[in-house]
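S1.2 Input.
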Amino acid sequence: MFEDKKQIVKTMISRLHEGEDPEVIKKEYGDFLRRVDASIISKAEEELIREGMPREEVHKLCDVHLTVFDESLSGKSSLALAGHPIHILMEEHRVLLATVEELYMIAEELVDETDVGVLDEKISRMKHLVTHFKESTRHYHREENVLFPYLEKHGIKEPPAIMWMEHDKIRATEGHLFRLMELDTLTISDSIRDIQNIAIELNELLSSHFYKENNILFPTSLQVITDDEWGLIRSEFDEIGYCCFTPEVSEWNQHEPSQSLVEDTQSADIHFETGHMTKEELQAVLNSLPIDITFVDAKDQVKYFSDSKERIFVRSKAVIGRDVHLCHPQKSVHVVKQILDDFREGTRDKAEFWIDLGGRLIHIRYFAVRNNNGSYLGCLEASQDITEIKQIEGQKRLLDPVV
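S1.3 Output.
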């Protein structure tokens, strides 16, 4: 029965991609649409992409799909109990939509405003609202680094990849808003109108994106992810942290993970050619390094990452075993593939980049890891904040006093 429904959905989506009128399809499949659920839509899109339909094309026409499937997806306002990871994400969706609507209304009120006191008050409120969007990066990090990997483990790979593409578009639009809000000419009507236009664009992006997640991605997640896994997901959500506007997250009666899913932390001796350490010592040494390291094995799967106190990029235990290509936004996957292919073929042994991240200079290096026989074992990524290191001059021979 599931396979039959999935095939019908694939046929419908293919017809939409060929340009057929959505209303014609809705009329033809009316009874069927009332019985189809989110997991079938997700699987159908997944298979179509595997069969050759470009991911970008599926993404471009997602809104058309939702127009057709809207009736079957309606009435899902409450999917999980308060404090459950899905409930947290959906509540953050609600707050962000309310925030962008208020931002637009304030900008509209400011267009013809001349009272300096009113201007200062409302601009101050706008800047406060914008902090919500700056904080929302944790919302997307929790999805990309925790929820998406768990979905991938259950064979749901393409819908998360499409959602990540939309995250990048949302972040780019938010970046434009942040730059405008930093202008000294914010009281000039042209700047206010620019903010209005961005608020409209952002509202459209968020409304469409959140609808897809609330009605397709999240219901699918609840169907395939186990209670044990939801307990682990909540723990990893807590570790990444929440936004300044996240509602209360502690009400859900969190399921205790089975012992088989809890990491073994017992110490054990590990011997090397140049010495030996216990597991506890080795882990502490790796976590004490002033850099973040991640090891990807020869099969391109994430095998390990250090837990440095000075972590630069978000990592979660959910990425262990994940295909490293899925750990990056679509726009940079081709670079990752090129590096790993070159390492595997032996034409390159390292690659390095440096980026500005919030005013900090981050040095990112990739090294091919090979055994004594030269066989490729994997790739080591090392990321380091070199802002202060770059400023070093002269010599320093004295120990700083204890503070």
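S1.4 Remarks. The chain has a mean pLDDT of 85.
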